[in-house]
Structure formats: structure tokens, C-alpha cells
Amino acid sequence: MQRLILIFFSFILYVLSFPPFKIFPLGFIFLVPLLLAMKDLPRKRVFLLTLLFFYVFWFYHTHWILNMEVEASTKPWLIAGLIVLPLYLAIFNSIPFLFVKNQYKVLIIPSLWTLLEFIRGSTYLGFPWVNVAYSQLENPYFRMLNAVGGIYFTGFLIILSNTLLFEFWQTSRKKYLRYFFVLVFCSHAAGALLYYYPQKGNSEKVRVLIFQPNILPREEDDYSEWMEALRSYNRLLSEVNDSFDLVLLPESALPGYFKYSRKSISLIDSLSRKTKASVLLGSADVNLDGKRNVYNTALLVSGDSIIAQYNKIHLVPFGEWLPYENKVKLLQRIEFGQGDFSPGDSLNLIRIGEIPFGVLICFESIFPYISRSYSRKGAGFLANITSDGWYGKSLGPKEHFELLRFRAIESGKYVVRSAKTGISAVIDPKGRVVKSLGLFQWGYIDADIEIRNSKTLYTQFGDFIIIISIILALVALLKSKRRK
Description:
Elements (H helix, E strand, L loop, with lengths): L1 H16 L14 H7 L4 H20 L12 H20 L10 H16 L25 H26 L2 H23 L8 E8 L10 H17 L6 E3 L13 H14 L2 E9 L7 E9 L2 E7 L38 E3 L2 E7 L6 H9 L5 E5 L8 H17 L3 E5 L4 E4 L5 E5 L5 E8 L6 H5 L2 H20 L1
Helix pairs in contact: 1-2, 2-6, 3-4, 5-6, 5-13, 6-7, 6-11, 6-13, 10-11
């Protein structure tokens, strides 16, 4: 009974640390009761109990995928996905607990946790959703350490604090308690220095108009979406009278293929001329040469001319495409109801005059490597366009927005976001939401974005904690093997 109480208590602490609750102090202790409950159990039971623990957590944080409106024939696949996905994610969290009895668990558990989170977020099947670092979303000082080492670095520190406190609880050795307080204090002190240190920006600023049209996505042949879009954009044209440098519209800003729609081109031409600005918008695009590949695209339009284009490189697996379908013939016969998009082949910057910036299309906003690549190439700010209306007012769109805040900290750049039904926002380099529009609101944001050319330590050195974690895990495992 005592064991079950510890597990349940740890689960409550763990859930409350993450969105939507975001009680960040719990992040430094949330796994201690679970570790105490596992300390004298055989490995098989440890794995099964922790698998159940994290399965329930991940089910809560992914259940919103059922909100998506799909054809009746596809619904069973969606339900199957909701059953399998939390199990897949839970495995990564459970493996480190197999070493709860190891003499060097204080280092092995944080190192393995970090490595497995990194693996979970890598490759075309990567899904770095609600990593442990995101438990510190509302911790202004600690989250600044993401500018030093990214989400895997801060995640390592969080798990390390838990294992230090667990080791003290188990052994009563005060040195572990001292290490715990030193770690927590020093990490927050370093973060506070970064938070209050004056950040130098470029003297240049970009005036951005961010539009949230609040139009529900529909099937391609639903004419009512176009009529709703027309009303929404005409209202914007009637209310806006100022000039801007950039107008930011969401992913799937208008129905159909922008390049081949006279109505869409005419509407954006009017908006561009009215605001005297280039317009960035999301649209599907098709390459009519050769294989007729379809892309999820961001287009920069001036007047009635397209002056720049970026094709999304990291597509949503099983949503926008079926990974490795072109290499495995068996997969070509399977129909999950997925889209038929092709990934782009490069991360190219888009420019407003002489100012370069990077575009993150929807799902790309949760991948640190993409924003880091843009920053290394010299982006002055980042723009995120998305369409989350498929998921209603569920936790999904809210978490999608929250995770983006870390891209601003990692890159040291302002991030502007246009979401079709929300949440649209301006985020500063410290992860603070400067301006925002809530879910399912019509509106626009007028903001001056400071250009940042400096590079954070994370931009320069990336996920160095992965190398450190590999070394620590190997050394600890070899030492424990020798002792045996």
C-alpha cells in the first residue's frame, strides 16, 4: 500500500509540473517518490510499473489527437495511434529506472534519461513533445539555461536534482543533500545572470503585423472555408491603415494552392499594397515537373509576385506523410489517411530587404535543431506559422504554443507566430510572451521586432550534454561492472 501511495504521489507531482498546471518547483522533486517505490523491486516489475506510470502521463498529453476530424475509415487508425503512441513514448522514460539499484544511479539515470529523450526527438519519427525541460516553462531563471545547452541540458539538471535527493533519502548521507542545494542554487543563479544581463540587439527593427483569421480548417472542396476567409480578410483590410515591413499569415492561410488561385493572389495583393509590406503565408504547393511532389510551403509575396519560398523539411509522420514509404514497398500499400506531402530539401532563410529570418512551419517549432540551424545561418528573428484548428480548444494547441517559447531562448531571437485559430503571439528572447491572441479569437498584433545577430552558446555548441551523458553513462556502467 505504501508503495502505491508513493507512486500515486509522484504521478501527481509529475503531472502538475507540466502544462497546463506549470507548478515548476515540483520539477526538482517529482520523481523522488517513484524512485523510492522502485528501489527494492526486481527489474521486470520496475519496468512494468514505470511503463504504466508514464503511459498514463503520455495518454493525457496526447489524447487531443482524437479531436481531429477524419473520415470514418480512418478513425480506427487514429484510435490505434492513441493507444500505441503513449506506450512508445513511455518506454523511453521507463528504461533509466532499470538502474535504480545501481551504485552509480545518481549519474546513470540522468545520463540515460537525457540520451533517450534525445533519441526520441531525432530522425523523421522524432517527437520531442513535453520533454522534462518543459516542466520549467514558468521558471524565468532556470529556463534561461536553455540558451547555454538547450532542452536536453536543462533536462539533465532536473533529473540529476531528483536522483541526488533520492540518494540522500536512501542513504542519509548529507553530502547528497548539499549537492542537491548547490545544484539548484547555482543553476538558478546562473540563469538569473542571463535573465538580467543586458542583451544587445541590432539597431534595426522590423514592424510586423500578425494576423489570426480564426478560420476552421476544412476539406479541400469545402467552398464555405473560402467565403469565411474572404469575410475575415476583408475585415482586416478595412481596419488596418498603417504600413509595415512584414505581414505574417498562418499555415494554410487561404484554401487551395495559392500559386494557382486568382482569388487568393488578388486578395494578398490588396493586403500587400494596403500595408506596403511583404506578406508571408502558408500554402500547399505542387511541383508540376517530374514526380509532381506536393509541399507544405511558406511563401513571401510582394504585391502579386512570389519573391521567396521555403518548403517544410520536417513533416508530421503518419499525418502529412508516411516515413520511408518511398523505400519500403509494403508501406506503399498502407493507408492511414495521411497526407501525401514531400519534405523540402533545405533550410533556407527568407529576407525582408537585408534582414534574414527563419520560418518554422507548424510541427517544426518543437525541434531545436531547426531553429538552431537558422540562427547559425544568421537569422535575425524567427517566424512560426501553424494551423491547429483541427484540435479545438484541447491541450494540444496550447502545448504546441508553449513549447515554442524555448526556441526563442535557445536562439536568443524574437519569435513571431501566426496561428490560423490561435495562439498567435510575439515571444521575446527570454521566453516571455509579449503579446498574444487566444484560441478562436479573430484579431491582429502590431509589433516592432528587434533584430538579434548575436549567437547564444547553444547556437554555437549545440547539444554538448549528449556527449557528456554518453561518457558518464559508459564510465558509470563500466565501474559498476568491475565492482561486481
